[in-house]
Amino acid sequence: MPSGFYRNHSVTTHYRIDGEGPVVALIHGVGGRLEHWDPLLAELGDGYRVLRYDLRGFGESTTIKGRYELGSYVEDFVALLDHLGIDRCHVVGFSLGGIIAQAIALVYPARVDRLVLCSTIAGVGPEDKAFLRDRYLALKTSTPEDHFRRSIDLYFSPEYQKAHPEVIAEMEARRKEIDPECFASAYRIIAETDMEEDLPNVKAKTLVMTGEFDRASPQMAAVMAHRIPDSELVIFEGLRHNLARENPTLLAHTIRKFLDS
Question: Around 249, how many Cα atoms within 13 Å sit in the side-chain half-sphere?
Answer without folding.
Answer: 0
